[in-house]
Each structure stands twice: as structure tokens, then as C-alpha cells.
Amino acid sequence: MNLGVLAATAFEPQGTAAGPGAASLPPLAAAVLCEVIDLLGRLDGDASFHQAIDLHALPLTAHDVAALRAHLGDGEVDAAVDAAGRSRVVETAYAGVWWLDHGPAAGGADGARAQIVVARVPDLLLAHPADIAAARARLHAQRAALERGVAFGPDEEGNPA
């Protein structure tokens, strides 16, 4: 992504009419938004496309990140994932654009461990093949137990046995 000199470009925030005093994105946040637009073009042409922008790796201020997050808004999906730490995955108001927060502050807009992912679905939300195989085996065992009239209950982690 080219974060070189960028003229201050005003972008209309989600749900706000442009006009006098309309908010604009800071220049670096606007550059990230331009990159997101380009990545969406790639996703539009290739449904398997997946690209993450690590906001922590960019010279963005907390204000830049908050402005970008506010501009992108929220969509229909808001998921929490507890795997190797807590993560939050939020679909933005733009299909194919996702906001991911990782770590203890998951859900904040401070950008400490935030990413923007452009994909149909972020990899973090996809079931791992080994987990799918284990789930099938557990369900198969449960069905067999039901057929034999054997009760089953949750394991030590609260998952169905």
C-alpha cells in the first residue's frame, strides 16, 4: 500500500450526508480506505481472494484508526472467537470488508491489534478441517449412543460428549 503524500481527501462517513462541516478522514486513514477499495475490486473479480491490512504495522494514530472504523460502520455479523486468545470479527457496512480485533482488548477501536480483512469470509471464522472431522466423529458416537439408548452429556469443557 502506498502511504506516500496524499492530498487530504474527504470521504463521506457512513450514514452522513455530505455538506458544510461534513467529517473527512485523516490522510493516512483515507489512504487505507483507498487500499480497501482496490482490494474489493480484486475480491469482486476473484471470490477466493483474501487480503488483510495490519493496522498496527502502519503509521496510523489512534484518531486515524477510530475515524476509519467509524467510517466503515457495522454490518450484520459480529462474532467473538476464543482460540489462542480472544478475537472479535465484525462485518463492516461494506460487504466483503471485515474489522478484526485480536487480544484482550478485542472489540476496541484503538488499533492496537486491529486488522481490516477483505474477503468473502475471514479465515478466522472458517472451521478447521481437523475440527470438522472431530465434530463428525463426536456426532456419530452420539447418534450411536442414542440408538443404543445410552445417555450422554457434556465433557469436562461443557461440549457435548
Summary?
The chain is an alpha+beta fold. The chain has three helices and five strands.
Overview of the molecule:
The chain is built from three helices and five strands. A five-stranded antiparallel beta sheet has the order 1-5-4-3-2, covered by helices on one side. The chain folds into two domains: 27-124, 2-Layer Sandwich (Ribosomal Protein S8, Chain: A, domain 1); 127-161. It is elongated, with a radius of gyration of 21 Å. By secondary structure, it is α+β, with helices and mostly antiparallel strands. β3 and β4 (97-102) form a beta hairpin. The protein has helices at residues 27-45, 62-72, 129-147, and strands spanning 50-54, 78-82, 86-91, 97-102, 114-119. α1 (27-45) packs across α2. 30% of the residues lie in helices and 17% in strands. The longest helix is centred in the N-terminal third of the chain and has 19 residues, at 27-45.
